Amino acid sequence: MDIREYDGHVEPGGTSDTRVCSTLTIRKASVGGMDNNAYLLTCSVSGAQLLIDAAADAPRLLELVREGSPTGRLDTIVTTHSHHDHVGALAAMVGATGARTAAGAADVPDIRTPTTTPLQHGDVVRVGVNDLEVISLRGHTPGSVALLWRGGEDGDHLFTGDSLFPGGVGATQGDRERFEQLLTDVEQRIFDRLGDDTWVYPGHGDDTTLGAERPQLPTWRERGW
């Protein structure tokens, strides 16, 4: 297969962008009217698959799943947070694939599709031989989570939902307390722990790295959003 070098840029209705690592393949697609990113993680050892955010457009997401598995295997769907634009195709995807569901425990009551596994900070979600660490990032929603894959020679890969983007943290609707909580979690649980080459896969738009964003942290706190 001819796979262009991964850069994290995808267009609504366009093709997936694919990053092949030693034990994990990461596919990114844009779905829906709000340019939501959906990520399919495929274990190259076992064939297990995990989808991050069944946001919209179930036919396109099923196509994405089949890009990783011709049989349409999907083991788990992780929802990074409960906002409507991140769960629009969740029920349809569960119905089509029988996948288990997981989401931050505090957001579970706001997700209509039943959650198989409520997630807490520090939990581990497995994709075949690959471990994804659950990082709770409170503020955008009470139960927002990020997923961290520490790939060794393949580097660290962080899926942040709507809690961290290029240029800032997620929206907190002008609530200073929520903003302070989110930025503090992002600083302490992400920037203080992980290196500058950590690749960040956000819930909308292009990717970034922690190194690109780290110098802006004081500016974010000062401006309050």
Give a description of the structure:
The chain is an alpha/beta fold and 225 residues long. Helix content is 20%, strand content 31%. It contains five helices and 15 strands. The strands form three sheets. The protein has a seven-stranded mixed beta sheet with strand order 1-2-3-4-5-6-7, with helices on one face. The protein has a six-stranded mixed beta sheet with strand order 8-9-10-11-14-15. A hairpin with a 5-residue loop joins β3 (36-43) and β4. The longest helix has 16 residues, at 176-191. The model has no long low-confidence stretch (mean pLDDT 97).
Give a short overview:
This protein has 225 residues and is an alpha/beta fold.
Write the layout of secondary structure elements.
Layout: E1 17-20, E2 24-31, E3 36-43, E4 49-52, H1 58-68, E5 76-79, H2 90-97, E6 100-104, E7 117-119, E8 124-127, E9 130-136, E10 145-150, E11 156-161, E12 164-165, E13 168-169, H3 176-191, E14 199-202, E15 208-209, H4 210-213, H5 217-223
Parallel strand pairs: 4-5, 5-6, 6-7, 11-14
Antiparallel strand pairs: 1-2, 2-3, 3-4, 8-9, 9-10, 10-11, 12-13, 14-15
Helix-and-strand structural type: alpha/beta
Overall average residue pLDDT: 97
* Spatial strand sequence of the major β-sheet: 1-2-3-4-5-6-7
Give unreliable regions as ranges.
none
Quaternary state of this entry equals: single chain
Principal-axis shape: globular
| Number of distinct helices | 5
Strand content: 25-35%
Order of helices and strands: EEEEHEHEEEEEEEEHEEHH
**Major sheet size, sense and barrel closure:** 7 strands, mixed
Radius of gyration: 16 Å
The count of strands amounts to: 15
Helix content range of the residues, please? Answer: 10-25%
